[in-house]
Amino acid sequence: MAPVRSVFALLFLIVCVLLAAGCISQPSAEHPLNTTSTAITNALASTTTMPITEVPTECPVPANGTYWIMIDPIGNVTLGNPVSIEGTTNIPVGYILKVFIFPHSSPHSKWIFKGINGDVTIMRGINCSNVFSSHFDTSAMKAPHLVLVEVYSDDPSLQGYNFTANRSQFYVLTAS
Questions:
Q1: What own/partner pairs with CB < 8 Å and gap ≥ 24 does 41-48 have?
Q2: CATH architecture of the region 66-173
Q3: Contacts (Cβ under 8 Å, ≥6 apart) of 61
Q4: Model-level pTM?
Q5: Range list of β-strands (E), 51-144
Q6: Where are the domains of the chain?
Q7: How does pLDDT run across 37-61, given as a tens digit for each residue?
Protein backbone atom coordinates (compact mmCIF):
# COMPACT_ATOMS: atom_id res chain seq x y z
CA MET A 1 0.00 0.00 0.00
CA ALA A 2 1.35 3.46 -0.89
CA PRO A 3 2.29 5.78 2.01
CA VAL A 4 -0.48 8.25 1.11
CA ARG A 5 -3.08 5.47 1.11
CA SER A 6 -1.92 4.17 4.48
CA VAL A 7 -2.33 7.64 6.03
CA PHE A 8 -5.90 7.93 4.72
CA ALA A 9 -6.66 4.38 5.84
CA LEU A 10 -5.35 5.17 9.35
CA LEU A 11 -7.44 8.36 9.59
CA PHE A 12 -10.54 6.47 8.38
CA LEU A 13 -9.92 3.79 11.02
CA ILE A 14 -9.62 6.41 13.80
CA VAL A 15 -12.88 8.11 12.76
CA CYS A 16 -14.68 4.74 12.68
CA VAL A 17 -13.45 3.87 16.18
CA LEU A 18 -14.59 7.26 17.53
CA LEU A 19 -18.03 6.88 15.93
CA ALA A 20 -18.40 3.34 17.28
CA ALA A 21 -17.41 4.46 20.77
CA GLY A 22 -19.99 7.24 20.75
CA CYS A 23 -17.45 10.02 21.09
CA ILE A 24 -18.73 11.78 17.98
CA SER A 25 -22.50 12.18 17.75
CA GLN A 26 -25.17 14.78 17.17
CA PRO A 27 -26.62 16.44 20.27
CA SER A 28 -30.00 15.14 21.33
CA ALA A 29 -32.43 15.71 24.20
CA GLU A 30 -30.93 12.76 26.07
CA HIS A 31 -27.35 13.80 25.39
CA PRO A 32 -26.91 17.57 25.15
CA LEU A 33 -23.77 18.95 23.51
CA ASN A 34 -21.75 19.61 26.69
CA THR A 35 -22.47 16.46 28.68
CA THR A 36 -18.81 15.80 29.37
CA SER A 37 -18.07 19.27 30.66
CA THR A 38 -21.31 19.28 32.69
CA ALA A 39 -20.37 15.96 34.27
CA ILE A 40 -16.90 17.23 35.13
CA THR A 41 -18.32 20.45 36.60
CA ASN A 42 -20.78 18.46 38.75
CA ALA A 43 -18.02 16.11 39.90
CA LEU A 44 -15.73 19.00 40.83
CA ALA A 45 -18.52 20.77 42.71
CA SER A 46 -19.20 17.69 44.83
CA THR A 47 -15.58 17.04 45.84
CA THR A 48 -14.18 18.17 49.14
CA THR A 49 -11.57 20.87 48.78
CA MET A 50 -9.04 22.26 51.20
CA PRO A 51 -9.75 25.81 52.33
CA ILE A 52 -7.41 28.36 50.80
CA THR A 53 -5.30 30.04 53.44
CA GLU A 54 -4.35 33.61 52.77
CA VAL A 55 -0.71 34.46 52.33
CA PRO A 56 0.27 37.00 54.96
CA THR A 57 0.86 40.46 53.53
CA GLU A 58 3.58 41.20 56.08
CA CYS A 59 6.19 38.93 57.53
CA PRO A 60 6.05 38.57 61.30
CA VAL A 61 8.62 40.27 63.51
CA PRO A 62 11.33 37.70 64.19
CA ALA A 63 10.72 35.83 67.44
CA ASN A 64 14.30 36.31 68.58
CA GLY A 65 14.21 40.01 67.69
CA THR A 66 16.96 39.68 65.10
CA TYR A 67 16.80 41.22 61.69
CA TRP A 68 19.33 40.14 59.10
CA ILE A 69 20.75 41.32 55.80
CA MET A 70 22.60 39.15 53.30
CA ILE A 71 24.50 40.76 50.45
CA ASP A 72 24.72 38.65 47.29
CA PRO A 73 28.27 37.86 46.17
CA ILE A 74 29.89 40.74 44.29
CA GLY A 75 32.41 39.89 41.60
CA ASN A 76 35.39 41.97 40.58
CA VAL A 77 34.46 45.26 38.93
CA THR A 78 36.40 47.12 36.24
CA LEU A 79 37.06 50.76 37.09
CA GLY A 80 34.33 52.94 35.55
CA ASN A 81 31.74 50.16 35.29
CA PRO A 82 28.73 50.17 37.64
CA VAL A 83 28.64 47.79 40.58
CA SER A 84 25.36 46.19 41.69
CA ILE A 85 24.76 45.71 45.40
CA GLU A 86 21.88 43.26 45.82
CA GLY A 87 20.68 40.99 48.56
CA THR A 88 17.92 39.72 50.83
CA THR A 89 16.65 40.65 54.27
CA ASN A 90 13.84 39.88 56.70
CA ILE A 91 13.30 43.59 57.36
CA PRO A 92 9.76 44.53 56.23
CA VAL A 93 8.99 45.95 52.79
CA GLY A 94 9.26 49.73 52.45
CA TYR A 95 12.06 50.27 54.95
CA ILE A 96 15.18 52.09 53.75
CA LEU A 97 18.62 50.50 53.90
CA LYS A 98 21.88 52.45 53.94
CA VAL A 99 24.59 51.22 51.56
CA PHE A 100 28.19 52.33 52.12
CA ILE A 101 31.05 51.50 49.77
CA PHE A 102 34.46 52.51 51.07
CA PRO A 103 38.13 51.71 50.50
CA HIS A 104 39.94 49.04 52.46
CA SER A 105 43.19 50.88 52.92
CA SER A 106 45.97 51.24 55.41
CA PRO A 107 46.20 54.46 57.44
CA HIS A 108 49.37 55.38 55.49
CA SER A 109 47.87 55.26 51.99
CA LYS A 110 47.18 58.44 50.03
CA TRP A 111 43.59 57.50 49.21
CA ILE A 112 41.56 60.23 47.55
CA PHE A 113 38.29 58.29 47.21
CA LYS A 114 36.47 58.55 50.56
CA GLY A 115 33.50 56.35 49.73
CA ILE A 116 30.07 56.20 48.15
CA ASN A 117 26.80 55.90 49.97
CA GLY A 118 23.18 55.65 49.04
CA ASP A 119 19.76 54.53 50.15
CA VAL A 120 17.78 51.59 48.81
CA THR A 121 14.15 50.68 49.53
CA ILE A 122 13.32 47.09 50.49
CA MET A 123 11.00 45.37 48.01
CA ARG A 124 8.80 42.32 48.47
CA GLY A 125 10.53 39.01 47.96
CA ILE A 126 9.22 35.51 48.64
CA ASN A 127 8.78 33.59 51.91
CA CYS A 128 9.61 36.60 54.11
CA SER A 129 12.96 37.10 52.37
CA ASN A 130 12.58 40.59 50.99
CA VAL A 131 15.05 41.99 48.47
CA PHE A 132 17.05 45.13 47.76
CA SER A 133 19.09 46.24 44.77
CA SER A 134 21.17 49.32 44.06
CA HIS A 135 23.79 50.33 41.50
CA PHE A 136 26.81 52.57 42.01
CA ASP A 137 29.33 54.22 39.69
CA THR A 138 32.95 53.15 40.26
CA SER A 139 34.67 55.84 38.19
CA ALA A 140 35.78 57.83 41.29
CA MET A 141 37.46 54.78 42.82
CA LYS A 142 41.12 53.82 42.65
CA ALA A 143 42.22 50.64 40.89
CA PRO A 144 43.41 48.05 41.63
CA HIS A 145 42.04 48.15 45.14
CA LEU A 146 39.93 46.17 47.61
CA VAL A 147 36.64 47.88 48.42
CA LEU A 148 34.31 47.10 51.34
CA VAL A 149 30.51 47.25 51.28
CA GLU A 150 28.28 47.64 54.31
CA VAL A 151 24.47 47.56 54.29
CA TYR A 152 22.40 48.37 57.37
CA SER A 153 19.28 50.13 58.60
CA ASP A 154 19.28 53.09 60.94
CA ASP A 155 15.48 53.34 61.08
CA PRO A 156 14.41 54.38 64.62
CA SER A 157 11.47 51.94 64.61
CA LEU A 158 13.96 49.06 64.31
CA GLN A 159 15.99 50.24 67.31
CA GLY A 160 15.96 47.85 70.23
CA TYR A 161 16.15 44.80 67.99
CA ASN A 162 19.30 42.83 67.57
CA PHE A 163 20.45 43.68 64.09
CA THR A 164 22.83 41.65 62.01
CA ALA A 165 24.43 43.99 59.49
CA ASN A 166 26.20 42.46 56.58
CA ARG A 167 29.48 43.32 54.95
CA SER A 168 30.97 42.24 51.68
CA GLN A 169 33.89 43.19 49.49
CA PHE A 170 35.00 43.34 45.88
CA TYR A 171 38.06 44.34 43.90
CA VAL A 172 38.12 47.31 41.57
CA LEU A 173 40.35 46.40 38.63
CA THR A 174 41.93 48.50 35.93
CA ALA A 175 40.54 48.20 32.42
CA SER A 176 42.52 45.80 30.23
A1: none
A2: Sandwich (2.60)
A3: 161
A4: 0.60
A5: 66-71, 77-78, 83-89, 96-103, 116-121, 123-126, 129-136
A6: 66-173
A7: 555 556 555 555 555 555 555 666 6
